[in-house]
Structures are given as structure tokens and as C-alpha cells.
Fold these 3 entries.
Entry 1:
Amino acid sequence: MAPAPPAPSHPERRTTVGIVARPNAPNATSAARDAASWLQRRTVPTVVETETARRAGLSNRTASRTDLPAEADVLLVLGGDGTLLSVAHPVARLAPETLILGVNCGSLGFLTEITRPEMYEALDSVLAGQAGIDERLTVRAFVKRGGREIADRTVLNDVVIGRSADSGIIDVTITLRDRLVTSCRADGVILSTPTGSTGYSLAAGGPIVHPTVDALTVTPIAPHTLTNRPVVIPAREPVTLEPRLGGTHVDAFASFDGQLSVALEEGDKVVVERSERPLRLVSAASRDYFAVLRQKLKWGER
């Protein structure tokens, strides 16, 4: 790995940097130690996620993963896409102005698009107020049971209605505000943001949607009828997903960004609404979105 660059002479704002690393990942833990040392030499205020500090042997001020976003102006996320998704909810809820700088210390790293050799340069650009920022649409998803909400989650990637391994296919009705979109019989349904379009939705046959497009994608999972195809819908109106679980026993669940799963019962509805504020991700200076597609997904290669 290239040595850390020397501190530049330009003046910096007093920006507080939070550090969180993927658990049980030596590369991420090592990167956390390197980043903390680099920030300390520059006298940048730093707060480290509690478990990350313990594993890396750091003595910095600490905060829990839930509280960390409110303690920092920029959150340095070291790991893979799952690590970034694990902080997306608390950032969106507690501190939507907090920047997220995702550094890939894993394998694919589509959301964490900045490489570890680029970490110092990216940090330097953030501290200098010169970093490129991508604003990503998020949604709030509610599980409604009777007259109450039993779950409320902010989502960056996708909401999935799925069946358990020992259940048959399920029927899901999708409505856009009060208008019926479709009813499908399938293993489940994925409601994806543009950011999530390159994840589970893509694997299930959904389209790639550019992050600046103000839309959501409904993608059935292994539909029973071949005419059930993915559809792109406007993000400005609430979407309701309602699985029909009566009759023969069917176990279904709602999953939010792969981070939280809720068992569903007959009559439950999953309502998804566009969030008021986007999530702010630091973009790689050396490549644009289409370059990331080509690099990470081998897009356009024969």
C-alpha cells in the first residue's frame, strides 16, 4: 500500500470524522488504525465506533454505531456495501447532513466505491470542502398491522417481501397511492431505489437505474407468470405491498436493506414513502457512475 501523503498547506475546517469498520475483517481494522493515525497527525477531531475501537486497539473518543452519525460531520465507513448499509438508517434518521465516505475493504464494493489506496486523498478532499457528493434517494418503510406501525425503517437499497424456505409462492398486491399497479404470484417482490437497482433487484432481472432518476423499481422474484415483469414507478407517491397469507399456511417476511427482517401476518401492509432528505455519499474523484458499472459489474464486456 502506498504511504500516506504529507499534510498539505491549505487551511482546513474543524471537521469531525467518525470511523466505523466491518467487524471481523482484518483489512478494515487495519484501515481504521491507519486512518485514525493519519487524522491524529493532522489534529482532526475523531470519534470511533465502539467495537471498531476495541478491535483496532484505538483510544479515541467512541460512540455506538447508532449514535456515531450524530457525533460526526463525515463518517468513514471501512468494509463493504453491507457495512455502509448498516449505518445508512441511523445516518438518515439522526444526521442526514453527515457525509458518508465508503472505502472498500472487501470484494465487490459497489456502494463503497473508493479504494483503500484512495482513502487519504478522499479524506483530504472532504476536509478541504472539495469532495464530490452524490445525493441518493432513500425511502421510509412501515409495516402496518391493524391500526399500528410495528416497524419503521429508512432504506437506501431495497424493501423485500419474501417467503420462508419451507413455504410456497405468495401473492402480493402492489398499489401506488390508491391505484393498483399489479398483483403477482412469486417467491417475493423487491421494491428498489435507484441505488439498490444494482443489488438484489438486478440479480432478479430488474433494470439498472441511474442514481439521479427519481423513481423506484418493482421486481418480482421468480414470478409464477412470465408476464410479471419489472416496472419502474415514480418515487413521489407512496407504494403499498400487501401479501395475501390466508388459506394454506404461508410464512412471509419483510426485509429492509438486508439489515432488519420482520415476520408478516395476514392483513399486514408494507407502506413505502420517499424520505424528505437524501443520503449524501462521497464520490470517487477518479471515476463516474458508468465507470463504476464497467469496473464492478464488468458492464458492457463481451
Entry 2:
Amino acid sequence: MSNLSTEEFYDDLADSYNDIIYRCAPRYEEMQQTMLEYIPSDLEPRQILDLGCGTGNLTLRVLEMFPETQVTALDLSEEILGVCRRQCGDDRITYLQQDFGQLDLPDSGFDLVVSSIAIHHIDDAAKQVLFRNVLASLRPNGIFTFVDQFRGETPAIYEKHMQVWKSFTDSKGVPSEEWQMWMEHQDQHDFHATVSEQMRWLSEAGFVDVDCIWKHVLWTLLTARKSGDE
């Protein structure tokens, strides 16, 4: 699998993704639940975008929290969107296959944009473009919140992150070949940026109230708001 594109990689993992993510991502449920807890209580979103929806684990949580909303579930992988459709259904969801680097989103089309462990798949320049595109897609006072893998602020901290992560997967009985698969994919297709860099890029894109809400090893939750003056 070492030479697969990101799309091909997740196409191949689609049916086993849920099992894999729970044993490979520490505190997976906690990070998503915390994201929802920090969505402003006065926000009543009519339209939500799940950016990099994967198999729909976060999509389901959003639908449960906001029973009157419509969700657009967007992902690069056609196969993983199929799993999301089987897990979440169709009643309140529009499924959209798009590359983060070539997004075609409606201006001011969403009240809330969420994302879980997806944005690190694009390089740093593309992240900055993505943040501007997400801002344009939000209505005034709309919220963008995402949890993802982040680089440590120093090489030593980043190295420690990787050691702690490996210890966690070992404790879950993850086979060495599965860990190696993830590391090969990470070396070729993942782009970890620091928390401080990404908070700065959000501010430079035009977001306000940028904050880090939760952090554990590589996994970090950021939130930002589009100004109500726009």
C-alpha cells in the first residue's frame, strides 16, 4: 500500500476504518465529544458541512445534536462515502466527493463547518487556502471547528508525540505491520503543522475568536468564528 494515493489508501481501508481508528487514535470519542460541547449554545445551524467525513462518526454526532439541521458530508474517497451513507442514511445528508484542494462550496452556505482528523492530508499552503475557502463558505458568525493531528512546536516534542502514540498502539495490540502501514502513509501523504502556525493561519484568513480547546499528544481541537460584520 506504500505507493497509494490518499484517495486509494482510504478506499482500501473504508470497510475497516472504524475498527482501525478506535485502536489507533487515542481518546477518539473524547475529542469529538469535546468539539460538540464547545459549539456555542446560541448557534442553531441550518446547514452544516462535515469536511472529510470519513465513515460518518462525527456526522452522526452532529445529526444527533442538531436534529433539525441538514448536513453536507464531504470526502475524497468514494468508497468511504459509501460506508458513511450506509452508517448515516440519506434523510438529512447530502454526500459530496471532493478534494480539499479543489473545493467548490457555496458562499455563505453553512452555519457550522466541522472536521475530524482530515486536514493534515493537505500541505501547509493548501491548508491556508482551505481556511480562506471555509471562511467564505460560512455565514456571518458561523463556526469552524476541527480536530486533527498537529506537529509539536519543537522537533523534540514532535518526536515524543510519536513515541507516546506508538506506545498507545502497542497497548491496543496493533500489529507492527499495521503501524508501519500508517507510518509509510504519513511519510508520503501527511503534513503536520504546529498549533501556533495553524492558529495564525486561521487569523490571517480572517477568522476571529481563534482558540485551542483540547489537546492530547498530536491530536488537537481548534475553533474559530467568522465575524458577524461580514
Entry 3:
Amino acid sequence: MRVIFFGPPGVGKGTQAKLLSSRMQIPQIATGDMLRDAVSAGTPVGLQAEEIMHSGKLVPDDVMIGIIREVLGSPRCARGFILDGFPRTLPQAEALTALLEELGISLDRVINFIVDEQEIIRRLTRRVSCPVCGSIFNLGVKDPGGNRVCPNCNGELVQRDDDRPETVIKRLSVYHQSTEPVRTYYLQRGILVDIQGSGSVKSVHEQILALLNHS
């Protein structure tokens, strides 16, 4: 199974990708993880990305595609993968299509998560994370308690700068301008399906399994 999880920030792509990854025993491929793994492994494109990131610049598309080529062509993706957070722009989507054709890989589905924008803002601005173990909590949904200590490792929970209200609104604006056209691209290719992402984690997971014909 080879799928892309698509949608604006805060719709639950990462949570659902982890669940599906565990259930189907295929890797969740997140952009940040790919970069960190490539840098840690010291691959040529990883070293190139590290130099760019240290200079404070964004990693260009050709370098990202190089990293994705290494990941998708590796044995760990032989049974499938879940791309989480990529592509984010139309040029990235077109480059990914060319790469998959080169590798002889076809996508099964692009799953687009639909959540009301006010709900997205509410979710993100109430999100806290643990910088130690990476656990994420949404206050009022899975509230770790008033002491703001991670129940998994006792790290201090913090709100990331990009989850502050003014930043969330800017992130959504960037999404509509730069990323939303990717939905039309995959819709025209006949592989994009919308799902409602505003239900419980369990109900959204069940939607995905039904869509992929897995129970």
C-alpha cells in the first residue's frame, strides 16, 4: 500500500499515519524525519541538506527529492509507505510523480483530510508537546493534566512557536496559497479521496481502513 496523507496542518495526518503504519507494518515517511535520518546517516544528499539547513535556508526541492529517492528506493519501503507532509507544492508533486515513475512505483491513494478551519485553529492553539520524547497532547482532548508534565517521560510540556494563534493563521494562509493546488493535481489524476477528519481518532481511522479496504 502506497499512500499520501494530505491536508492542512492540524487535521491529524501524523496521528493517523502512525496508526496505519503500525497496523499495516509499512513506514510513515514524514518530511522532518527524512531530513534528520539523511543527515544522521551522512548520505551525500543528507550532507548537502545539513549544510543548507545550517545556513538557515529552506531545503530546495531537488535535494528533498534526492532524499525521498533514497528512502522510497530502500528495502524498508518495499511493502509500501505512507508519505506524511510531502508534497507541499505543485512543483514538488510533479517531481514526485516523475520520481515514482522512475522507480516503477504507483500511488494507491492520496487521502485528503477535511476539517473546518476554525476547528484547525482551535486544535493547534491548544496543542502542547514534549521536547524530550516528542509526545503531543491537545488540551481538552487528551489533556495530560494541569501540571503540564508529560505523563510518558516527565518532560515539561511546551507550546511550539508555530502553534501560537497568529502563526497558525499564517500557516493556513500559506497552505491555501501554496499547498491546496496539490489537491487539484491529484484529483485530476483520479487518485485523491476526501475524508472527514473532524471525528474521533478511532472513527477517522475506520474511515481510512474502509477506504483502503482493510478491516
